[in-house]
Amino acid sequence: MCLQTSKFKAAENYARRALELDPRNIKSMFRLLQALRFQNDLIGARHLLRQALELVSGDPSLLREELHIRLLEMKRSGKVPQSAPRVDLTPKDPDEEK
After folding, report:
1. What is the average pLDDT value for the chain, to the nearest integer?
2. Which residue has the higher pLDDT, 93 or 18?
3. What string of DSSP letters covers 28-54?
4. What is d(CA 37, CA 21) in angstroms, rounded to the nearest whole number?
5. 81 near 46, Cβ under 8 Å?
6. Residue 86 CA to chain centroid, in angstroms?
């Protein structure tokens, strides 16, 4: 709920507390990762992303977060224009392509 209402510091605190209780809780890692990204802590977000991907490699939500982080890093470095086009990362149904 905190992420939806832009209370990113509160979301970070709740996720950190949850991870103290269960350090391998992937949902808490994901919420903390998002909170860090929304606060522009890309170094912290990338570090946590690596930990999460070690637990559940190939998770679509984590891979989407990785793309968000990469895009923000590229924007910071000036390698991508600020108005980069949005990319649809929704998984495609193979049956729809036929």
Report:
1. 83
2. 18
3. HHHHHHHHHHHTT-HHHHHHHHHHHHH
4. 22
5. no
6. 16
* CA neighbor of 34 nearest in space, from 44, 25, 24: 44
Q: The tokens 């559940």 sit on which residue? A: 56
Burial class of 96 by CB neighbour count within 10 A (0 to 12, 13 to 18, 19+): exposed
pLDDT in tens, 36-55: 999 999 999 999 999 999 99
Helix 8-21 / helix 26-38 crossing angle, nearest 10 deg: 150
Count how many residues are written for the chain: 98
Nearest 5 degrees, angle CA 90-CA 93-CA 95? Answer: 160
Residues 56, 6, 23, 20: what is their CA dihedral angle, to the nearest 10 degrees? 180
Q: What is the pLDDT of residues 11-28, one digit of tens each?
A: 999 999 999 999 999 999
